[in-house]
Amino acid sequence: MSQLLFRLSKLSSRNNNVLIHKKSSRFLSTSPYLILGVFGDDFRSACGNFLSDILLFDPAKEELLTVRDKAVPEELVCSQVMGASHGWGFFSGHNAIHVSDTFSPLASKSDSKVIALPPITSMIYGQSEVVWNVAMSSSSPYRQDNEEGDCVVAIKFLGNHLTMCRPGRDLGWTNKLIPFVSFENSNLMYSKREQRFSLPAPGGNYLCSWDLHFENEPKFTELVFRNIPQLPQSEWELMDSCFKEDHWVESPCGQSFLVKWYSHVPSIRCKEPMVMVFREDQDTNEGTKTMSYTEDIGDLCIFLSKSEPFCVVASSCPGLKPNSIYLMGHSFAVYDITTRTSRHFERPKGLPESLTTFLPYWLAPFSIARLFSTSPYLTLGTRVKEVLPGGCKIADVLLFDPAEEELVTVPDKTVPKELMDEEMVGASHGWGVFCARHDRSVRISDLYNPLASKSNPTMITLPRLTALSSNYCNVAMTSSPHLEDCVVAIKFVGDHLSLCRPGRDLEWTNILTPPSCLENSNLMYSKRDQKFYLPAPGGKYLFSYHLHSKEEDFPEVQEVVYRGHPELDQSEWELLSSCTRTEHLVESPFSDERFLVKWYAHGFYSSVLERIDHITKRFMVFREEETTEGSIMCYTEDIGDMCIFLANSEAFCVPASSCTGLKPNSIYHMGRGLGFYDLTTGNPHQYLAPDGVPTLSYWLPPFSI
């Protein structure tokens, strides 16, 4: 049964997440998405919740993305989508308005965030109640999430009515009359640079704006246009017969544009939409803005729909077309500003036939929406406090925060009974991978994610392992296991690798890796190449497997060429030759940069542990560079703002500036001592293990990666 509205019977009550030591992160974690709708077969139910599939369109890959089995919050039952801003959806129903992250593929599947706003009861006499669009002043409606200050939500109605409120503070809405009748369709947006809500006036010659204090009168700014293109009479006549929309949009770095979008009504697929883009000049005078026509907005893409308009840096999301405008409304197309031509999107393959209309809302990537996430954390284990009837336990989840260098406790978290007898064997994308000792069944859980539900952690069950080896090396995943195309890979000590697609495969695909080559290699997934990589000992070769590898497939082999090794004296080389060495391939999630890291640790006998222990002595980092001779690895002591995290989990990078307290140009490590290594000085720094020796050794990236 196809659904564009959430029409369900009453749901059971929900538990809100408790956020512990939360930090802000600004990571580009998703593509922009278009909301296609919600689909379910009578909305399958489990554990008292009604489940549905969220259907999204990915414009970068031009394909359907399905977020399966998402629980629909009780508050959204029978509600209608009325807008979107910063990746959050706005819903109206039952004389109430709610804001929710339910359309986000990264949000909790079982416990979406829902924020209630006051009901709109005091409409100004004679005004339309038809919502045109919604805008929000900050990346999250949660007050505690915002570095920008209190969030302000503004709703523009068809006509000349505007209303505003601050979630969590205001008990009612502040209504404003727009000083012109806005039946010509322009979208309200929030300018972070000017800290004002802006709305183009009819004709696009003025910009009307409001500050965040409500009581002040609107400000008018005249728009003065330059370099208007010379068009033939026939083209002006054609545009004069079109439906026109004016959109004011701001890039992530604060550059402003006015976009004039001309559409044929009714929509005719064979007729192209027409677009004019004007860029704000820097020599703008007080009271005016000089807007110059342009056919070059560089690496930017602009997204226009009934959502708040936004810009995305195309190179931050492979597949997006730079210098383009993505349209949804009277056209579902991408418009090339350079060639002034458009290409209409085809109906996504796999979309249910009963879903014939799409919701006209683009969702911004969560780098723009700035999903407020966590610091990277090290898993320390759990401290059981109570055993519940039925086998579940209440426990404190213990984490180590390397930015604050302190213990973080997520109190009173429910540990499902299914995880009681399971060993954590790896971590990837913030998810823990657990394997049962008695039957080798596998589960993926967000148990250690401090932003996930405390009372109902998400668990995804995978088939039982059938590989001969039971010694685990590490785990890598292509994406969050919520996503339909996720592939999980487990590397075993020895010559075994197993692959599985959660929710799709009934058994694991077991692959024999080359003998005597990859026994202790660390697995990683390259988003750029869409392959799993295993560096051979010494890092001389890289072995790779594609996502659909079969048992009989051989890996691709790539020889690694190194340049610029550091000049070390004899004693330094002798020390390194006495160390254990592991190789780790790591890729930046925000660019195509790739690094190969060699980790050297010296062994010594510990009388306390009564065994051989290791202490980290040195790291060598090689950055991949393209030359006329091909790809080479060049030694570097400067990875800029990046931090690299190495442990038994899949290696990852984080910009230090995204999390106050992290050390740039450093490597954080766990496994041969707990600490960080400064690449600039070559000095290792050891942490004292908080609250005893860690029982686990897995770094969790910020959950938005």
Q: Can you walk through the features of this model?
A:
This protein is mainly β and 705 residues long. The protein is built from 2 helices and 54 strands. It is globular.
- Per DSSP, the total helix count is 2
What is the number of beta strands? Answer: 54
Secondary-structure class: mainly beta
Count of spatially separate domains: 2
Overall CATH class of the largest domain: Mainly Beta
Chain-averaged pLDDT: 83
Q: How is the CATH topology of the largest domain named?
A: Neuraminidase
Shape-level CATH architecture of the largest domain? 6 Propeller
Strand order of the largest sheet: 14-19-20-21-22-18-17-16-15
Question: CA-to-CA gap between the ends?
Answer: 33 Å
Query: What is the general shape?
Result: globular
Helix percent reads under 10%
Organism: Brassica napus
Pfam families: Beta-prop_KIB1-4 (PF03478)
Domain KIB1-4 beta-propeller: 69-335, 414-678
Protein name: (rape) hypothetical protein
Question: Quick summary of this structure?
Answer:
InterPro entries: KIB1-4_b-propeller (IPR005174). This protein is an all-beta fold. It has two helices and 54 strands.
Helices and strands in order:
Layout: E1 2-3, E2 33-39, E3 45-46, E4 49-58, E5 63-71, E6 80-85, E7 88-93, E8 96-100, E9 114-117, E10 131-136, E11 153-157, E12 159-165, E13 174-182, E14 185-187, E15 189-191, E16 196-200, E17 206-210, E18 219-226, H1 233-240, E19 243-250, E20 256-263, E21 274-280, E22 288-294, E23 300-304, E24 310-313, E25 324-328, E26 332-336, E27 341-344, E28 362-363, E29 377-387, E30 393-401, E31 406-415, E32 422-428, E33 431-436, E34 442-445, E35 459-462, E36 472-477, E37 488-492, E38 496-500, E39 509-512, E40 524-526, E41 531-535, E42 541-546, E43 556-559, E44 562-563, H2 570-577, E45 580-587, E46 594-606, E47 611-627, E48 630-636, E49 642-646, E50 652-655, E51 666-669, E52 675-678, E53 683-686, E54 699-700
Parallel strand pairs: 14-19, 18-22, 23-25, 44-48, 49-51
Antiparallel strand pairs: 1-2, 2-4, 2-28, 3-4, 4-5, 6-7, 7-8, 8-9, 10-11, 11-12, 12-13, 15-16, 16-17, 17-18, 19-20, 20-21, 21-22, 23-24, 25-26, 26-27, 29-30, 29-54, 30-31, 32-33, 33-34, 34-35, 36-37, 37-38, 38-39, 40-41, 41-42, 42-43, 45-46, 46-47, 47-48, 49-50, 51-52, 52-53
